[in-house]
Amino acid sequence: MPGRTTVLVTGGAGFIGSHTCVELLDHGYDVVVVDDYSNSSPGALERVAKIAGRPPTAVHEIDLLDRRALSRVFDQHDIDAVIHFAARKAVGESVELPAEYYDTNVGGTTALLRAMHGHGVHRLVFSSSCSIYGDAAKVPLTEADPASPTNPYATSKWLCEQVLADICRRLDGLSVLALRYFNPVGAHPSGLLGEVPRGAPNNVMPYLTGVAAGRFPRLRVFGDDYPTPDGTGVRDYIHVMDVAEGHRAALEHLDDATGMRVFNLGTGQGTSVLQLVAAFERACGVPIPYEITGRRPGDVPALVADPGAVARAWNWTTTRDLTAMCEDAWRFQELNPSGYSN
Ligand code: WQD
């Protein structure tokens, strides 16, 4: 896209959103952020500005379901493309609050599409998730493998993909790239930006760094009776800076074609929970006590990406390994024991 490109980033104060804002600002994009701070904080955007040396053009604290407020954002800025991160993403919570998850995640996406259509914006990168594959029969997974979401969060992401695909078939000129992330972990290498979950972390890496920092006595390993090499869950951990770079690559390929395209974002490398613990201890020199507990409801044995499609289409691959993911996550935890309030 010629000249200065303005990208609207929904959920731009969140974990992946904030790292993507740094990546875009570092590469000459102008960034407009909308976020309701329901699972993020303005402090993240202050760190984004500090790292990038300049702030986003504007930050709007709004709920995507507030149609008038969202329309005003498009009135105030000449948006060239949108990256849509804003969503609720806790699997366990989605089982308790399914209607809220469909309202926020699917309703928020259709509200955004209506605002884009009303303002002649036709480029969208959508934050999807490997969780749509559910209890996959095989690994690694390609984009052609069937979706079988097993919880409202994953189903909401799958429904969003269906809505986007259908609208792309009906509206000429719309270009959508849906990126199915596997497990984003790590932090910006500066130690200024990272993952700051509200309350006790659901995800393994922030919980693990919390154990290393003495916030928690030990890591609970949710089950060691899965059909995996050491019995613990296997995932494809991808550095959050690789995920951010993947979004910049997506922006640069939106004009390759119109219509909806889907890509997995992963490394292709599966790592079990116990292998992650060992990698963290090796990388950071901090022992991680753990106990084996029962399985967590909703967990699946293994989710690993086949990253070949995005490599062939964009000549893009991840570049950071598990050691970097552990080192960067730990640096952020050490420098920010109280998240963004220090
Ligand atoms: C990873 C592994 C757990 C915590 C989640 C979302 C998914 C996506 C990525 C957004 C599993 C085990 C975990 C702990 C543990 N998010 N574990 N002890 O569930 O693979 O995916 O984040 O798109 O939608 O569901 O990530 O980090 O919670 O779990 O043993 O305290 O670690 O059983 O095998 P998950 P996770």
Automatic annotation (TrEMBL):
<dbReference type="InterPro" id="IPR001509">
    <property type="entry name" value="Epimerase_deHydtase"/>
</dbReference>
<comment type="similarity">
    <text>Belongs to the NAD(P)-dependent epimerase/dehydratase family.</text>
</comment>
<comment type="subunit">
    <text>Homodimer.</text>
</comment>
<keyword id="KW-0299">Galactose metabolism</keyword>
<dbReference type="InterPro" id="IPR005886">
    <property type="entry name" value="UDP_G4E"/>
</dbReference>
<protein>
    <recommendedName>
        <fullName>UDP-glucose 4-epimerase</fullName>
        <ecNumber>5.1.3.2</ecNumber>
    </recommendedName>
</protein>
<dbReference type="Pfam" id="PF01370">
    <property type="entry name" value="Epimerase"/>
</dbReference>
<dbReference type="InterPro" id="IPR036291">
    <property type="entry name" value="NAD(P)-bd_dom_sf"/>
</dbReference>
<keyword id="KW-0119">Carbohydrate metabolism</keyword>
<keyword id="KW-0520">NAD</keyword>
<feature type="domain" description="NAD-dependent epimerase/dehydratase">
    <location>
        <begin position="7"/>
        <end position="266"/>
    </location>
</feature>
<comment type="pathway">
    <text>Carbohydrate metabolism; galactose metabolism.</text>
</comment>
<keyword id="KW-0413">Isomerase</keyword>
